[in-house]
Design goal:
218 residues; 6 strands; 4-stranded antiparallel beta sheet; 10 helices; 43% helix; 2 domains; 11% strand; alpha+beta
Length: 218
Amino acid sequence: MSEEKLILKSDAETAFDLNLRRAKALASSGLLPKDYNGDVSKSMIIVEMAQRIGAGELAVAQNMHVIHGRPSWSSTFIIAAINACGRFNTLKFRMTGTANADNYGCIAYTTEKATGELIEGPEITVGSAKKEGWYGKSGSKWQTLPDLMLRYRAAAFFGRLYAPEILMGMQTREEIEDIAVKNVTPRQEPKKFAALDLSDIEEAKEIKEPITYQESEE
């Protein structure tokens, strides 16, 4: 009679198997964006990220974008996640400064439900956007939709300070798109050679006579 061995899986292994099954189901659902559709490994990342931040897997897939090889969140998702996390009241925005001026800015703020304390994020202004190089890029939405971009960036900074467990160290899609990748390699100028004097070449061709030594007579 052969003995049957009972193999018990650890909790980590069981969780991994369950997540893998969920990832396979997601990858074959046809509901994911093209970056993730049909890719089990990327779908596995979606499942894990959804569990870490307590969000739905489909919501994570629809709002996590890969820009220049880096994963990022959409700004609207960050705002929605902050509002849904249960720690804060609805996130609001206060505009500062003068419209169409460099001091025109935005502060994201809310109150903490447990204490009622007012919590404010850092002020983001058009001037700071120009200094960081976000504003002057070709096709930048900072020039056409400054009010919207100020709110998006203010929400991202608020989340990074007061809800880092939601952002998980990731930047927003708009932040990554605003970062201009510049080639800092100095341009190599072609070497310039001075005009050669033919007389110098002729002199170099001349072979000097060898020096001979005479033995002295004793």
